[in-house]
């Protein structure tokens, strides 16, 4: 269910997405309002689930996590028990940054961030030890061309 937002809400959200560390005064000035109405709108959007947790974005490469793999998973087990186990395994692995269930020939795609190919192999070996998978294809990202967490508003 989508929440109804007006243009002021969208301006505030654009600013928060761009840099959530800005003060309320800075955001209010940029969006053309005062601090209290901006705070009230932010509070309301938090209560309505539009704004989730606040966090920081770290640079993976500067932390030594230089290899990004996109992992395509196919399974021939579609019962609930297998899926529950698979999802538990994925959620427990910090290397998995994203996991999506897909329509089509590939069942799942994972975004995995590790130090190098050897670390990916260790991840892969642990994954297939914990859950039976029909087919896994790993694609190494050679270059990140675009990355953003900002939604188009």
TrEMBL record:
<dbReference type="InterPro" id="IPR019885">
    <property type="entry name" value="Tscrpt_reg_HTH_AsnC-type_CS"/>
</dbReference>
<dbReference type="InterPro" id="IPR019888">
    <property type="entry name" value="Tscrpt_reg_AsnC-like"/>
</dbReference>
<dbReference type="GO" id="GO:0043565">
    <property type="term" value="F:sequence-specific DNA binding"/>
</dbReference>
<dbReference type="InterPro" id="IPR000485">
    <property type="entry name" value="AsnC-type_HTH_dom"/>
</dbReference>
<dbReference type="Pfam" id="PF13404">
    <property type="entry name" value="HTH_AsnC-type"/>
</dbReference>
<dbReference type="GO" id="GO:0005829">
    <property type="term" value="C:cytosol"/>
</dbReference>
<protein>
    <submittedName>
        <fullName>Transcriptional regulator, AsnC family</fullName>
    </submittedName>
</protein>
<dbReference type="InterPro" id="IPR019887">
    <property type="entry name" value="Tscrpt_reg_AsnC/Lrp_C"/>
</dbReference>
<dbReference type="GO" id="GO:0043200">
    <property type="term" value="P:response to amino acid"/>
</dbReference>
<dbReference type="InterPro" id="IPR011991">
    <property type="entry name" value="ArsR-like_HTH"/>
</dbReference>
<dbReference type="InterPro" id="IPR011008">
    <property type="entry name" value="Dimeric_a/b-barrel"/>
</dbReference>
<dbReference type="InterPro" id="IPR036388">
    <property type="entry name" value="WH-like_DNA-bd_sf"/>
</dbReference>
<dbReference type="Pfam" id="PF01037">
    <property type="entry name" value="AsnC_trans_reg"/>
</dbReference>
<dbReference type="InterPro" id="IPR036390">
    <property type="entry name" value="WH_DNA-bd_sf"/>
</dbReference>
<dbReference type="GO" id="GO:0006355">
    <property type="term" value="P:regulation of DNA-templated transcription"/>
</dbReference>
